[in-house]
Design brief:
Layout (H helix, E strand, L loop, with lengths): L2 E3 L5 H9 L3 E6 L5 E6 L3 E5 L2 E9 L3 H8 L2 E6 L6 H9 L7 H5 L3 E2 L8 E2 L4 E12 L8 H4 L8 E13 L7
Antiparallel strand pairs: 1-10, 2-3, 2-6, 4-5, 5-10, 6-9, 7-8, 9-10
Length: 175
């Protein structure tokens, strides 16, 4: 299969990717590069009657900084078991210090509906226009179990993107 899908059509692939090695959250940087960051959290669903992809990024991350000025983001999900080294690097190194696209040999492909590219080696893609951002604060956590996961004030911001386009490509780590 190669082509456009409904936003909710391949959620098993998305869940397996995020629960496995992760997926790539791609965002344009203020200086014109693209910064892919590995995400292990993500959520798709309906908010305000629109299909939404929610991503969670800590304030200390360079991606957080990039998302503040961005109008869009993409999420590229590798096939299960592929791009493990690239996901590891993009989840542990900062785009402030390193061009992760170049370091990983990732192939940028223009988005179909947003100005943020996708990663050509991946097979499942979501293109999203940012519609809202909300910063978690310590009092927001009702569950003490969740509150204990945060030892500092480096809490996540949730960024909600309307899914404008979702599709499968023949992307493979062997591209």
């Amino acid at each position: 299969m190669d082509g456009r899908i409904r936003w909710d059509q391949e959620t098993h692939w998305l869940k397996a990717g995020i629960a496995g090695n992760g997926a790539f959250l791609n965002v344009n940087t203020p200086d014109g590069r693209v910064n892919p960051m590995t995400i292990a959290w993500g959520q798709v669903g309906i908010v305000w009657g629109r299909p939404i992809f929610s991503v969670f990024v800590r304030k200390s991350r360079y991606t957080y900084e990039c998302l503040q000025s961005a109008q869009s983001f993409t999420v590229s999900v590798p096939r299960l078991g592929e791009l493990a080294d690239e996901l590891a690097l993009c989840g542990t190194k900062s785009g402030r210090d390193l061009d992760k696209v170049q370091a990983c040999g990732l192939m940028l492909v223009p988005g179909r509906s947003v100005d943020t590219p996708i990663l050509g080696q991946c097979g499942l893609h979501y293109e999203c226009a940012i519609v809202a951002r909300a910063q978690f604060e310590a009092p927001d956590f009702v569950s003490k179990t969740i509150h204990r996961k945060y030892e500092s004030t480096d809490l996540h911001q949730i960024t909600l993107g309307e899914i404008l386009c979702a599709y499968i490509t023949k992307g493979s780590a062997n591209v």
